[in-house]
Amino acid sequence: MKFFFPDAHDLVDPSFDFVSERRTFSGSRQQAQLYAHEILSEPPYDGMLLSKAMIDPHLGSKSVRYSFAQVQRLKRVGVREFLRLDRPGLKRQIASMGDCGSFSYVNEAEPPYGVEAVAQFYMDCQFDYGISLDHVILGFRDASVKKSDVPPDWRRRFQITLSKAEDFIKLQRQEHLPFKPIGAAQGWSSESYRDAVKNLQMMGYDYIALGGMVPLKTPEILASLEAIREVRKPSTKLHLLGISRLENLDAFEDAGVYSFDSTSPLKRAFMDDRDNYHSLERTYTAVRIPQVDGNAQLKKLILAGVVDFGAARKLELACFEGVLEFDKGKLGIESLLERLREYELVWHGKKDDAVRYRETLEDKPWKRCRCAICQKLGIHVVLFRGAERNRRRGFHNLYVLRQRLDRLPAKEKGKT
Ligand SMILES: [Zn+2]
């Protein structure tokens, strides 16, 4: 299966020093910092996906990450040069895919722009693949749902998505637009996804993206894929848009999925309570040593007079220095865990992560990982502390996902 990574300006600063925690470079972040495919020796993904929601301030959406100047440059040089997808020496070709960012306008009655504007965005960025304009259906019912129980708005969105897909492929063909069109399917049940795929195939699509999958659980996705199997032509490729659960990759591949995109491995590094550092065998909890002046919860407690800034800072530094000493064999695990616990009581209340921290620190999974991040950072990669470490741990997770994908049994059989 091919893995596309959605771009959201996830970059790391190569000038960041992990001991002094200072950076020496200041300037254009996007141009001086590194993407995952630049810092790892091999790109962890087969492609990058860029959503119109990332760049379009008219959507008024919180997801916009590109400044006006960056959008101008993106349109001038194209997405390949902007995201530096053709860096010399890359061992894997990175494809580019555009999508219209329908989750950013899910609450609107209609998509805020037309098929022409979406096609223009794909042309401006010079994407390899462009997904048709869609309108997300936020809800899922099992196959037993009666037709009369389906909200009229869901049917309306289903129809909007199909009619936009039809306009989109017509436009692409008439104007000989140079990107490969992908038809977006929306549905509220396995059967409606199947019907959408059937319709899109009739329009001429042989690459179909299943949207609205973000909130769906794995069994719901698998049920939809099973239903689609009844109508899918052997030549039709399926893409899963924005899936968050990646436990059943082999089941997805068996069900005919050709590609998917997900930010989950990156986000779990710093948004999950426990599963922050991934390995092929299991996940580990990163050791949290929040910076006193960078942690919202601590700031609140300090402002409220519950926590003394100086005392908290002292504990923070004792933990940070403790980890470095532990790494050099100069501090035992019990003393380190005690320090971590003392600090945790200040900022994390009753929560006790000691058991999981012990596993991480004793197992030392970073020593076994061969990715460029773990090799360079060592123990810092498992510290939940500041964006430079947390994002790099996310990049490491992308590397592990790549390994999982490369090991899928179906792939060995030459299925993909
Ligand atoms: Zn690693």
What would your notes on this structure say?
The chain has two domains: 2-262, Queuine tRNA-ribosyltransferase-like (TIM Barrel); 271-399, no CATH class. The strands form three sheets. Strands 1-2-3-4-5-6-7-8 form an eight-stranded parallel barrel. It has helices at residues 29-32, 36-39, 52-55, 68-77, 79-82, 115-125, 152-174, 190-203, 218-229, 249-254, 264-271, 296-303, 309-327, 333-347, 354-363, 372-377, 386-406, 409-412, and strands spanning 2-6, 47-51, 95-99, 129-131, 180-185, 207-210, 237-240, 257-261, 277-278, 283-284, 287-288, 383-384. Helix 7 links the parallel strand 4 (129-131) and strand 5. The protein is of the alpha/beta class and 416 residues long. The chain is built from 18 helices and twelve strands. The protein is globular, with a radius of gyration of 23 Å. Helix 7 (152-174) runs parallel beside helix 8, helix 11 (264-271) packs across helix 17 and helix 13 packs antiparallel against helix 14 (333-347). Zinc ion binds at residues 369, 371, 373-374, 396, 399.
On the 0-100 scale, what is the average pLDDT? 93
Number of strands: 12
CATH homologous superfamily of the largest domain, by name?
Queuine tRNA-ribosyltransferase-like
Determine the oligomeric state from the structure: single chain
State the shape: globular
Low-confidence stretches: 411-416
What CATH calls the topology of the largest domain is TIM Barrel
**Rg, nearest Å:** 23 Å
What is the CATH-assigned architecture of the largest domain?
Alpha-Beta Barrel
Helix content: 40-55%
Supply the number of structural domains.
2
CATH class division of the largest domain: Alpha Beta
Number of helices: 18
Instruction: Tell me the span between the first and last alpha carbons.
Output: 6 Å
Major sheet details: 8 strands, parallel, barrel
Which cofactor or ligand species appear? zinc ion
